[in-house]
Amino acid sequence: MKPVSLILATLAVILGVSIDTDFTEAGIAHPPLTIFGVLETNAGDPISSGNLNFTFSEADGDGMALGAASLAPYPDGNTFALSIPLEQAPVSDPETVLEVGRSYIPSASYNGAPVDLSEIGAELTPSGGQVIGPVTLVVAPNTPVLQLSEGVNFGPVLLNTFQDRQFVIRNVGGQTLTGSARFQDGVYFRITVNGAPVNQINLNLAPAQSRTITVRFWPTVLSPTLFDIFRVTSNGGNLDRNVSGSAISITLPPTQPPVESPTPTMDLSPTPTFTPNFDLHPICSPDGQITPNDLLEVLSQIGTGGLQERSLFD
């Protein structure tokens, strides 16, 4: 028997019309079922690394389909997402594809530990394009689980100087976490211990234990963007964080010579003074009266320096 898609494609050519032939060999493909949200420990710590696996068991049969979720620190705050294909019966692969309209009982495990799916429900009948979320899934992990703080943007830093920031690494699992932390390139960004740069830090964290790692940005070239990846690998998962910054310089204006103002000067040489060469005595006429003519004569003699010690009426 010829595939349905081939028959419809041939019919479309004959009729001169457009027919959607996006079908699988065994059934019609529908938009996938999507489940997303936050996976966290029973202590409320978000989990963004490790293995989160879903099982969808047929409610009226023995079949089951499996799906693996993606774990990551998504920008919207969620930490997991699952997308599983949906097809019209009969499905092409019952172990990886869900059948539209069929009821399933979902279950999940994180690194082998059972996950509480109460926010999803005990039974699920998927439809094309169905989205479930955001939901919170809870697990009591029985393995080490890595948790890492968010990435760092140093912003602008003056050329040939440095700034320090911190990452916090935490074990939110139930067993000891071992691993290491380092930068991918380690040129302008370095891990420091007591102020000294090191290439790598080794980790050994008991459950609920954390460690703060100091990282330093020391730009030696001018650049609007310098970038590296802070990478942690462990037996509780692997996580990467972006680290960035920019290198700037400060240009001072050219130094101007001081403007010299004229220095005020003062002539301190002696100032000529007029010293009269006479002694002034009371002037009076024999009758004791001073007339205007007497005053005029006095003034005239003062101007010529001819006033002598004598009476004007001698």
Please provide a written account of the structure.
This protein folds into two domains: 4-139, no CATH class; 146-248, Immunoglobulin-like (Sandwich), CATH 2.60.40. Helix content is 8%, strand content 41%. It contains two helices and 19 strands. Strands 1, 2, 3, 4, 5, 6, 7, 8 and 9 form a nine-stranded mixed beta sheet that branches. The longest helix is centred in the last third of the chain and has 13 residues, at 292-304. The chain starts with a helix and ends in a 10-residue tail after the last helix. The model is unreliable at 1-5 and 309-314 (pLDDT under 50).
Number of DSSP E strands:
19
What is the mean predicted local confidence, pLDDT? 84
Largest sheet: 9 strands, mixed
Number of domains: 2
What structural class is derived from the secondary structure elements? mainly beta
Give the N-to-C terminal Cα separation. Answer: 170 Å
Radius of gyration: 50 Å
Low-confidence spans: 1-5, 309-314
Helical residue percent band? under 10%
Oligomer: single chain
* Count of helix runs: 2
The topology string of helices and strands comes to: HEEEEEEEEEEEEEEEEEEEH
Large-scale geometry: elongated
